[in-house]
Amino acid sequence: MSPKVSIIMGSTSDLPVMEKAARVLNDFEVPFQLLALSAHRTPAEVENFSKAAESQGLEVIIAAAGMAAHLPGVIAANTIVPVIGVPVSSSLQGVDALLSIVQMPPGIPVASVGIDAGMNAGLLAVQVLSLKDNNLKEKLRTYKSNLKDKIVKANEELKKVEYKFRV
Ligand code: RP5
Q: pLDDT, tens digit, for every residue of 60-93?
């Protein structure tokens, strides 16, 4: 089984965030790889990885980094495989990483999820893959429907909370 998605993180200190992406891919039964590569500490390895990504069959790359988060952009510069960036809040509440990921120059897009939003990165990757996978489409529909059920149940619970002036 070869991976369809690669989860790359700048450091293993990013793992608590990226575990959420891994869990989503696992739940949707999407084969993925999980690697630590750093745009600053291992630039040659990042270049090798990104240049080989397409020929290795990767269809989406999720890249997470904190601080001056160049990892998603550097990967995107070296491949046509779509890159989803995850800004990690390792300093400045993650705003530094968010801006580093979002503000890519014209021609090198990186999709970004929110700060520490590993779960959404996993879901977005599944949605990209679902474009040519009906089985994943069905699983996504079920997932969304379960989200709706959660809010329906929440409203049932809220009805039980009493206030004198609640009408
Ligand atoms: C970034 O620097 C990593 O993505 C991490 O978020 C941050 C800190 O890395 P460590 O010093 O914890 O390895 O490159």
A: 999 999 999 999 999 999 999 999 999 999 999 9
Identify which of 119, 111, 107 has the alpha carbon closest to the alpha carbon of residue 84. 111
pLDDT of residue 29: 98
Amino acid at 142: T
Task: Report the nearest atom of ligand 1 relative to the CA of 12.
Answer: 13
Residue (of 69, 81, 77) closest to 107 by Cα position = 77
Task: Write down the pTM of the prediction.
Answer: 0.94
Residues in the ligand 1 pocket, defined by CB under 6 Å: 10-11, 13-14, 38, 65-67, 88, 90
Q: How far is the CA of 134 from the centre of ligand 1 (A)?
A: 37
Per CATH, domain 5-134 is 3.40.50.1970? yes
